[in-house]
Amino acid sequence: MQQTLAKDWTLSGTGLHSGKPVRLRVRPAPANTGLVFRRVDCPEPIRDIAVTPENWLEASLCTVLRNEHDIRVTTIEHLLAAFHGCGVHNAIIEIDNEEVPILDGSAAPFVRRILAVGLVEQDTPLRVLRVLKPVVVVRDGASAALLPARQLELAFEIAFDEPAIGHQQEQLVMSNGAFLRELSDCRTFCLRRDVERMQAVGLALGGTLDNAVVFDEGRVLTPGGLRREDEPVRHKMLDAMGDLYVAGLPMIARYEGVRAGHALTGRLLQTLFAQPDAYDIVTLNGPARKRLPGVGVSLSDLPLSA
């Protein structure tokens, strides 16, 4: 069955790149609505932006959607990851600015709000996207792939010259609350020199040590240090969880990313949908449904750091 929220929830914060205040109100929605961002600061006829591959706009620093009227919503990946990991299929996300708030840089604050209000099942079959054959995109030494699998699996590998990060890799099966336990609290990260460069050109204006893990020549500048030894690669997996949900449906596939980012994962989805024989859309029931990420999750699955 499809799921939506039991009731509304609200949350306020600051945009990572814009530095502007923003308020979210997330509302339940009827079955088959999907996820829809509603820019309440825009005129009513043009303010809705559906979470679909057609509305994806390529960007390197975050995930961006825009509708046919060029109304945009940005930095949506952590919120989408929370929806994906909690099994939210239908919701209206009212937002009074372009950028979703960064909060602590992870998906955990969104997850906490979702599970605090609860989810309700809707008497409508759940459709999922199943990958049937490998799809791969490669760019500038980075790659992203979708492969057939029995459930959603994520594998990621990164390599940075920064000695406090270095080479990291991880793989996980996203069933039975694994997203909440293993990824939801992992924060966005950056190098100090990159922050200074971005802020010089008007980006990352809302970035602070409270909403990102900042590395500088072998040191972790963020108070309290890392939440996990391999927090950077796990955050990359969190991002992939959100970026994959731009498909508009839960996915049964294995995702493999090597130095991949938002743009490459988005391009991977575009490549998948351009090949109709590479996937099908099926209705799940019984044991197969129990392997989806949001089945059976609870607040107790959140790490103590979240």
Structural description of this entry:
There is one protein chain. This protein is an alpha+beta fold and 306 residues long. It has one domain (2-299): lpxc deacetylase, domain 1. The protein is built from 7 helices and 21 strands. The strands form 6 sheets. Strands 2-3-9-4-5 form a 5-stranded mixed β-sheet, covered by helices on one side. Strands 12-13-20-14-15 form a 5-stranded mixed β-sheet, with helices on one face. β17 (213-216) and β18 form a beta hairpin. α1 crosses α2, α1 (77-86) packs across α5 (231-244) and α5 (231-244) runs parallel beside α6 (262-273). The longest helix is centred in the last third of the chain and has 14 residues, at 231-244. The radius of gyration is 18 Å and the shape is globular. The mean pLDDT is 94.
What descriptive keywords fit this protein?
21 strands, lpxc deacetylase, domain 1, 306 residues, alpha+beta, 5-stranded mixed β-sheet
Question: Helices and strands in order, then pairings?
Answer:
Layout: E1 2-5, E2 9-14, E3 21-28, E4 35-39, E5 48-50, E6 56-57, E7 64-66, E8 72-74, H1 77-86, E9 91-95, H2 108-117, E10 119-122, E11 127-131, E12 135-139, E13 142-147, E14 153-159, E15 167-173, H3 178-183, E16 189-191, H4 192-200, E17 213-216, E18 219-220, H5 231-244, E19 251-252, E20 254-258, H6 262-273, E21 279-283, H7 287-290
Parallel strand pairs: 4-9, 11-19, 14-20, 16-17
Antiparallel strand pairs: 1-10, 2-3, 3-9, 4-5, 6-7, 7-8, 11-21, 12-13, 13-20, 14-15, 17-18
